[in-house]
Model the fold of this input.
Amino acid sequence: MDKKATVLSILNDLTGEDFTNNLDEDLFASGLIDSMDTVQLLLQLQSQLGMDVPVSEFDRNQWNTPAKIIKKAEDAD
Amino acid sequence: MLNLQPYADPQYFLLLMLGLLPVMIGLYHGRRFKTYETLISLLFIILMFTGAKWQQGVALIGYILWQLAIVFGYLHYRKQRNQTGVFVLTVLLSILPLVIVKVTPAVVLHPSLLGFLGISYLTFKAVQVIMELRDGTMKDVELMPFLRFMLFMPVISSGPIDRYRRFQKDYEQVPERTQYLGMLERAIWYLFLGFFYKYMLGYLFGTVLLPRIEFSALAARHMYWLGLSPALIGVAFVYSMYLFFDFAGYSLFAVATSLVMGIDTPMNFNRPFQAHNIKDFWNRWHMTLSFWFRDFIFMRVTFFIMKHKLIKNPIRVSQVAYLINFLIMGFWHGVTWYYIVYGLFHACAIIINDIWLRFKKKHRKQLPHNRWTEALAIATTFCVVCFSFLIFSGFLNTLWFK
Done:
């Protein structure tokens, strides 16, 4: 599975929604994820993709859409 | 000798704008007069602590030296190693002065000599830098930028609480002329909105109405069980209005002054009484504080618990984290029963709120959603919040125990 699919599946697990066609949806503004989901997202990125993202790296403006998260995952290595 | 309390009277605003005039002229011409800005900021800080307040001034100097030693000591250490124990010890040492200042009045019944106006807000900033050094999101800190961040004059007494990297970026970037003119426009709007909030509405609720309705509530206390009179409900709402307009007014002054200095300090309030639920409320009320707690306490606690699998169920994790988060917030306000109960009350409120949100998500189709249910949600949230502020005000302490 490529990184894009992994990120989308993590987001699907957290929110119950499929973002394949909604890559620019604002996750925080729409209330789809909160701080708790954020932490789970970071932990999943760590365990599934080996991305080490500290909590204080998490700037909401840079992580607020599926597209941005995928970009972060792809840029990670 | 002249003593100037931040945003306290018309004289302060006149002197402040006069003092900042050269800064404005410089920024308008695309230049930041760093030395002048530092000197005028220091002058206004010194004038906060003249006369009878000189002890607080000495406490501030001592406090800054203490934080410098801790932050730069940790920076030096962090460049070579990264042990959790050292990090925890560093954070504890950094909050130690604040803990002493908060605990002293509860133990010996007089304020600590280490205290000064603004100590909590400086502590938030210092701890934030330590946390970011630990995470590696900040690799380095320099002396002057750190001091400038800690002692940024417009926000020194009561926030808003900025973040180091954000502040530093604004400081190093001189805004373009059109952008700066836009900032000045916002500054003027915020300044006058602040006057309206703090000196008209805050005065109306806090100075004119509050003492009267508190008097009625005290007069009626023996006629009702636990003194729960209709006037007490009035106290809750009037006090909440006072608290909002006074603090939001102050925050507007602080943001306006920052903007004049070319720094886009984050806003503290976003129509909190229009919140649809308690969670929404904390995204709108004293935002820089609640976001600080969210980022540096709630998220770190949940991350820690889940990573080490101390609790399996994510819902339980969030509930534990909410309790820790709001209890710390309660203690931060002061070591009195009513601040701690206020913290617990909000923890319970947000836990119940989460249970409701999960229920709503599951039964989305069965539950009606229209403008009436929204109005009901806003009204309920408003009442819950006003009740929490009645606890916070300490008036129940007067009503029951004095």
